């Protein structure tokens, strides 16, 4: 965000002096501050404390340099591409091993006692009303599953009813919601109609081989029985790394029939998550079916076999609408034998297809917008909402999905109903959004005074009901009646609405802001001091190249990327300050020609000057001159190899507190208790191990004496918490808390390990970013290319708020129970953040206090009190109203998969990082939660008489198994010896605070196929499934794989015939990476590329369950619980 023309004119019209050629006479101070002569060379420095000669320092301890981890490579397509080795998050060390390629190639697996089918969405009984008033029949599709189920583990899922609920003919519609606002019904909005999908069914596996397509009314021939050897295996969360060597076991299976009833789709029906209905509970059958031993077949390594038949639809061939489906296969009367059949990966629920279909609803000439309604409805997918090319949401009375998303959009009246489903009742709050930075979607600020309920202190919102002619209002949360101030009074119209409703954002919008008064400010002081941004750079032999690179580009970043207030474009940017550090701390006085004040005694830091912070609009020439000369200041000195870190933050923030140039009035008030707010950027390279524990606060040291390889072996085991927990002295925990309570300033870390695998103790240093609320930590691998500068620019621009306090209020019956994210809390109800970026978000789990009223909304209000970039104190309010329900089917129909998986993964990683659970227990938590969710859906929402041989997935949660599969393999949970302790701690910190858009791509990375278009004159990219068998297209020139942190370029073996493409990309045709010498590419990028190089014949381990294996295990467990 560039400065205005007037600002640029100020830069170059100031009559300011550049850095002088000669240095100033230094001033020396003892620790008590009195002047004392000290022999020093002529330099522009002022020393404080007991300066120690370098020769008298204790000898430097040798830096621990663990051996780099073994490189995991991507084998040739001729030998197969292991899913875990294509995308390495921090393991290779660059990409997510875990969630990379989830879906396996087509394989030959033994069937269970019944052929497993997948039905998406269940079914809907006749007469069940949909949101748009139409009776929408259920969309159902089935695909056969193959694969011997896993052994049945001890389930830790919440207990479910063992007996089915009584069968009903139809479900009753929940009571009509009575909005508190009489005009609410006129504001509701329905999503655009989705094209009707005909019921589809995949033919039997035998017909796949023969090429025949079975449609409605036809039946498939009986399958040919085949017998294959089988090996035992473990459940997904108990799989060990490396190959399994267990005795084989042979079994025979017979394919059960594939049957399902099909109903036609009505025109203009609502999308499945909003309108698909569900039938009453079905009577469970097949109690006498023999239970097979729970064993999983090994990965057979069969080549992928895609479905090539004509007329295949979304999940199979299209059937005639309205025609009943006939069973496909033999009669359902024999379970004594098992048959081996093939499974087509294309028949599985596809993340890519679901994403594209959701985006397609908003990619038209009519510019369809998703307008939030009262009550809230299920929003578009996260990938659609955050698509930069789309503008798909509008505030219609509830907060936009950018700010608040719920796991369910119909809340059951009784807590027991929700417990039956095992779906968490939670919301994910993102107070600020990236679209506000460039003023695309700015939350409006009202000029009204702050009106609140006298009892619960809720802020005025669209759901308040005005009574008694407008003289009083009834709170939408606690129903208390409060008198309206005379200055806020307005008459009501014939509908009971205020005449000035649409002139006040708080009366018709879901998100808005108030200007705060003195009582909402820290120490009662309003708008006293300007925010600041402090840059702290390590000055050691290791960091010298980084210091030179940063000083070269930092002036341009300050000129163009400092944050601005989107609601006050005339406000100035934050002030800036600079310091460097090693075993001493150098604080620079930019106004005084960059004179440095050096603190030698880091055990007792203090502010050495009062002109530390400078205005970039006024003193930009001095800033630019200082940064250009910074590398040369220490060019002739032998730099140290040890450093401190904690005292640097203390010294920077203490100096900012006494600064005299950060007052808005221009006249500092020494007696004012005003607190300056801001952020500290730390550019750090080495473990802060200078001095001794008693003399140096925040000193860290390696936690082990054994080799790094031995320590890595603890990752992924029950003992990993011993190396991933923060340091026992809790210094950085206390410092993070002081940054929030005393300094109101956040901390962001940019880490540059000197070698790959060097230990920086990210688990301990990460407490600074976690407690201060930023949650921002960047880690680079022995390079400081343009990616680092892009990250720094984005971090600065996305800085939005300081000294924030957030409180969540809910209506009667529910209350906030637990918070998951990056924050500090002194009470159980308020959470505090020293600095907030646009990507910061927090998950809030809600808990029942009592049974909910049937005719009222569940209202959630999130209030954030913060200081903006302009220094103005504001209150931002986000509101959401959810309707209530009584039926289990309504919960599943209005569930949000993106929010649900985000909350579940946060819970698993949070318990793992806190040491409450082991890796295996965290995986069990995810697996058992998925089993309970799908079992409850099958028990309470499945079509009567449906076969237990079908795995029925709710339409709204059909991607849940896919995301669970990615979570079981993600670095934050499954990271093992191929990672370093710092890498796994880094991945856990990022995932705990990951916004929905980031968690989605972490769990299911994007894969783009690059190929020529029809004219072969241009390139086009197509997103494909994240599967190994998708990386063997003969027309593909390359594949781009991205997981939210890194992008990999994969060149397949089939590229040999495209010399023109190779020449365009690499400059010339080459047959080895070592011959590539691009003129326009930096050596850092080239090293990065070579590090990920693999050669034909390289092998890798296959770790974790495949998507198909997980579905088989889920199906087996569901049938066990139903029986």
TrEMBL record:
Protein name per UniProt: Uncharacterized protein
Domain Zinc finger Sec23/Sec24-type: 450-488
Composition skew (Polar residues), residue ranges: 41-57, 86-143, 184-268
Biased composition (Pro residues): 59-72, 269-282
Record bears the keyword Transport: yes
Record InterPro entries: ADF-H/Gelsolin-like_dom_sf, Beta-sandwich_Sec23_24, Sec23/24_helical_dom, Sec23/24_helical_dom_sf, Sec23/24_trunk_dom, SEC23_SEC24_subfamily, vWFA_dom_sf, Znf_Sec23_Sec24
Taxonomic lineage from the root: Eukaryota, Metazoa, Ecdysozoa, Arthropoda, Chelicerata
GO cellular component: COPII vesicle coat; endoplasmic reticulum exit site
Location of the Sec23/Sec24 trunk domain: 543-782
Similarity annotation: Belongs to the SEC23/SEC24 family. SEC24 subfamily.
UniProt keywords, alphabetically: Protein transport, Transport
Keyword Zinc: no
GO biological process: COPII-coated vesicle cargo loading; intracellular protein transport
Domain of life: Eukaryota
MF GO annotations: SNARE binding; zinc ion binding
Sec23/Sec24 beta-sandwich domain segment(s): 801-884
Biased composition (Low complexity): 157-175, 284-341
